[in-house]
Amino acid sequence: MLNLTSTQAASLLESISPGSTIYLVGIGGCGMSGLGHLLLDLGFRVEGSDLASNDDTRGLVDRGARVQVGHDAGRLQEVRPALVAYSSAVRRNNPELLAAEAWRIPTVRRGVLLAGLLERQRGICVAGMHGKTTTSALLAFALEKLSANPGYAVGARVPQLRRHARLSRTPAGELPPLFVAEADESDGTLAEFRPHYAIVLNVDEEHLDYYANVAAVCQEFDRFATQSRETVFFCADDPRLAELFSRRTRTVSFGFHPLADYRLVMKPVAVDSTAPNGFEVWHAGAPLGDFRTGLLGEKNVSNAGAVVTLLHHLGYAPDAIAAAISDFRGAARRQELLFEDRRFRLFDDYAHHPAEIRATLQAFRSLGGRRLLVAFQPHRYTRTQHLMAEFAASFTQADQVWVADIYAASEQPIAGVTSARLVEMMREAGQVAQYCGDLTALREKVRAAMLPGDVVLFLGAGDITRAAHAMAADLRNESVTPNESLVAELSAEISPETVLKRDEPLNKRTTMRVGGKADLYVEPASEDDLAAVVRFCRKHQLKFTLLGRGSNLLIRDGGIRGVVVCLCHPSFSRLEIAEDRIRCGAGVRLKAVAVESRRAGLSGLEFLEGIPGSVGGSLRMNAGAMGSWFFDVVEKLRYMDHDGVVHERLAAEVNVEYRGCPLLRNHIALGAVLKGVPATAATIAERMQKYSEKRWESQPAAPSAGCIFKNPQTVPAGKLIDELGLKGTRVGGAAVSDVHGNFIVNDGHATARDILQLIDLIKERARTVRGIELQTEVEILGEPE
Predict the structure, then answer these.
(1) 334/288: higher pLDDT
(2) What is the pTM of this model?
(3) Which helix (H) or strand (E) covers residue 113, if one does?
């Protein structure tokens, strides 16, 4: 095959008359379509082929190019082009390339032809494994803002540029125009470039399907730097680049490293801030200026620093540079925001190497959001094979990951190299990950998992972008329910650590294991978040319901309207013992209080061991067992009013009653200080054992809510129900316990309706036979089904 070098390509282009045809095989790729635009700018006719049409091919057709779908040697015979250029993704047995060889038509790789075109310009090449598209796009954008009228070839669409590739011309006698080229190292064409200036961002273990090892990659970058005509700008934070270039002449370094010639210093940004990244640049021991970029993450600040460094070296003033880069919003598929409303933010990103993924996820964490959900498509079997372990460890910043099948990019499958295996390794490392090969199914699974406040990120260099765009279209067409809108608004007012769900099933959150859904369910992560929830409910006139550990509670099958709040976050579950005082949060389990008191040698709290509730619920209900009440051991309580204001009060100042504390009917218990009495460990353990044995002898093990009825004055409720012959009585899946008449148990299939009907049956029998009006001790909440 008559493959040309960049020098030969440049000479051939000089000799071909305007109007001659150049044929592009694989014209639909971003790099190839960019090359097409450059050739059209030079006055050549452009024809080409690809397996499908897309926005890039349509853009060329609009400018007069001819594009056919499918590769056909016959078309090449008809056209008889002066030159055939092809993408590195095109296989050597392509019929059009074989025809060009047979007819001795010169052929050239895309990167080589781009290097040849650069010979006519004052070239600025941007190279590196990661970030070169964003950096070259930012540099081209900044030069346009600075009225430099640059040419450029960027490897992705850039919404703020007219096209992603163009040539510019200058009057005769003037310097050739500046031309920014994204130089690709993946196929060995990097050393073909001889730019005036070069930016080198990083070197990594990448493209090992082409290079023998990392040393070979470094050698390629070394040759590239040697062929650069003037200055090489390199990132001082990359140890391999520092080793390659720091001792060379005509090099300038940038980065966060203290020895960088242009040293970058990040300015602090508040979590969840939408403001762009701010950074300072220091040069020659003095501040050069303050700069900002709207792109997320430290890596993008470094990329912006590269652009600042080069532009300052070219003579532009710092203030002008700062103004030129501040409005840049990025290239397509680089942190590209596809959808945003009050519920979700959906992004598409090209990251497909472990280093890129880690940097991208870290950047997106700075957005805040409740969770970061990631859909990932590995790119190439060879890359996945070489870097499988690194990929498995790259997603630690994500809350949940879905992995699609590997995008082959013309490669053949490799035995044992699969996305399913990658997911296994991610799970072994503790990552929440799921294999979902088909992109349509993956999109559906991600959508099903999304909750208001989530940031959703689609990652990969293959066709996963189609799934991202399809999801964005689906979200735009969705009707937002009132509950979703409320969750979205509330999520913006509380920290990401707070659990926030809509339509949350409550049956799993009660000891009776029945009940419908909560419209909104919240587990505040702090008192500040709880106060925000309280104020939110007041603002929207939403009903506010507190849920403890779910004992002594029956939730109807229709669920609970409004907001259900449970103080079970670890911040509300702290327990500290100092001398004979026990300070505990509302979420602390009573069993934990009893156990820790025994360890500390404090008596008087043994009766708590048998109550399956929390401190908050027990304060509110003045829970009791074994002849003792909870407030018998409370010295002080802490609570919040419905304005979100926190108060403390001595227990002696609080009115309490049998199974109730009136103060806490309209206030939220936050915690309490309990008082014990010093005793020997043996004495306490003996008493706890006695209470435990009594409980298990007299209480059923099946799911229940505890005692259903308050004890009448004349007879204990359990004894009354036993005397009425109601033990074992059933309604649906609910039954009066054979062990204790005042317990109703769930056999696993009961509904709240079954239990309520059984309660009514017991009440009616007690009223009719004994003239006793039983009152429920269990709290009944919610709506009928």
Answers:
(1) 288
(2) 0.65
(3) helix 110-118
